């Protein structure tokens, strides 16, 4: 059709495109280490026991499917705020948190980006170099100019904090800075407590706007520990944007369940901000789906299920750590060109392996091991059955 004559074929998504080619690969022995999805020791994506219990309850008590309010399920929003800050926190107690349910962490970023663009269209958005590829697409799509700030140092395999901090001293006031609250995606390199403190002081002094993406809460040190950066910024009495996702921590990827929370200065401001967030939601998808929100609410509001969920999350975290050390052992015992011990120091689901795009392509072609072009490997998808295959492939392409 003439209308579409000039429509170009879009390139594959850097992450989801790899999943598609993995699915289309006819080879029997193939391993997908691309997308950030946790699989258990048997290679299956788990349905958590706490989630199953919630589903059983919801099945028995299902009601009519009327629309949720634009901001989402009230009881879910309450749980999200308490999970982020605890019930005793002043921000919760005084109603200063503007929260809307969102379609996963991506939806939270999108609603926040649209809202920020409506109030600060001339601000620039800064993302870490490297970052999750969708950060750039979401903020550029909302109309912002997006730039990178220095973050990862390939030599030390850690954060180049001096360069990062210097950039934050130089960018214009009221710039929006996207930060990874924990388990930096893709590098697994996080800031120390002291570095977060220094950054938060600088942001406060320079009126920079932090947008903390927390897609992996519980996958580094624990639920409370992984929210440390958020608490450090919150203590500075400044506007803070937080994108929460339960895709990974509840293994609820396809339910698209997340939340955007904005810290405001008082209840009246919170009401104004929430009213605007609702308008953003209305214009994108009207109101969110309810199933994932009901599950998360049911689990978090029930002491026993919540404890069960935390225990399951701990198991996931521990299994990833054991896969990290096993992978390092295998890689280091099979070659002596590179010391892969740094993989043990990275936090979260991923390892930023240092493999080049060419090496990644060779692993796919010759060994049916799929990972992302940047060399990011999903450690959470390794298990005793596939880890040797993956390690051999890496060693053979070095
Ligand atoms: C990832 O980084 O692999 C995940 O966050 C999934 C995604 O949507 O890209």
UniProtKB/TrEMBL annotation:
GO biological process: L-phenylalanine biosynthetic process from chorismate via phenylpyruvate
Cofactor section: pyridoxal 5'-phosphate
GO molecular function: identical protein binding; L-tyrosine-2-oxoglutarate transaminase activity; pyridoxal phosphate binding
Keyword Transport: no
One cellular component term from this protein's GO annotations in UniProt: cytosol
Leader peptide range in chain numbering: none
CDD domains (alphabetical): AAT_like
Keywords: Aminotransferase, Pyridoxal phosphate, Transferase
Aminotransferase class I/classII large domain boundaries: 29-393
InterPro entries: Aminotransferase_I/II_large, Asp_trans, PyrdxlP-dep_Trfase, PyrdxlP-dep_Trfase_major, PyrdxlP-dep_Trfase_small
Subunit structure: Homodimer.
Protein family: Belongs to the class-I pyridoxal-phosphate-dependent aminotransferase family.
PANTHER family registered for this protein in UniProt: AROMATIC-AMINO-ACID AMINOTRANSFERASE, ASPARTATE AMINOTRANSFERASE
NCBIfam families to which the protein is assigned, alphabetical: PRK09257.1
Protein name, per record: Aromatic amino acid aminotransferase
């Amino acid at each position: 059709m003439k209308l579409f004559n000039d429509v170009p074929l879009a390139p594959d998504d850097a992450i989801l495109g790899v999943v598609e080619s993995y699915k289309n690969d006819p080879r029997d022995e193939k391993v997908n280490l691309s997308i950030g999805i946790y699989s258990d020791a048997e290679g299956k994506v788990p349905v958590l026991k706490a989630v199953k219990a919630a589903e059983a309850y919801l099945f028995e008590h299902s009601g009519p499917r009327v629309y949720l309010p634009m901001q989402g399920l009230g009881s879910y929003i309450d749980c999200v705020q308490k999970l982020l800050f605890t019930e005793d926190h002043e921000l919760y107690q005084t109603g200063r948190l503007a929260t809307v349910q969102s379609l996963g962490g991506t939806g939270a970023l999108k609603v926040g980006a649209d809202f920020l663009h409506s109030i600060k269209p001339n601000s620039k958005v800064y993302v870490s170099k490297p970052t999750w590829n969708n950060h750039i697409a979401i903020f550029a799509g909302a109309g912002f100019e997006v730039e990178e700030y220095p973050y990862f140092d390939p030599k030390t395999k850690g954060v180049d904090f001096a360069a990062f901090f210097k950039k934050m001293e130089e960018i214009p006031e009221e710039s929006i800075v996207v930060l990874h609250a924990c388990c930096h995606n893709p590098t697994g390199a996080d800031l120390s407590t002291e570095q977060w403190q220094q950054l938060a002081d600088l942001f406060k002094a320079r009126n920079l706007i932090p947008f903390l993406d927390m897609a992996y809460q519980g996958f580094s040190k624990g639920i409370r520990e992984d929210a440390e950066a958020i608490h450090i910024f919150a203590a500075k009495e400044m506007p803070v944007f937080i994108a929460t996702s339960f895709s990974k921590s509840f293994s609820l990827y396809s339910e698209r369940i997340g939340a955007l929370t904005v810290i405001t200065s008082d209840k009246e401001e919170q009401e104004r901000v929430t009213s605007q967030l609702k308008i953003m939601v209305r214009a994108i998808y009207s109101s969110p789906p309810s199933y994932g929100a009901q599950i998360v609410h049911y689990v978090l509001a029930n002491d026993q299920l919540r404890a069960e969920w935390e225990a399951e999350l701990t198991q996931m975290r521990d299994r990833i750590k054991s896969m990290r050390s096993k992978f390092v052992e295998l890689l280091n015992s099979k070659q002596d060109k590179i010391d892969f011990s740094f993989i043990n120091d990275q936090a979260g689901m991923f390892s930023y392996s240092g493999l080049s795009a060419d090496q990644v392509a060779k692993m796919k072609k010759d060994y049916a091991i799929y990972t992302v072009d940047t060399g990011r490997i999903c450690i959470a998808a390794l298990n005793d059955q596939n880890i040797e295959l993956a390690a051999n492939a890496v060693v053979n392409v070095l």
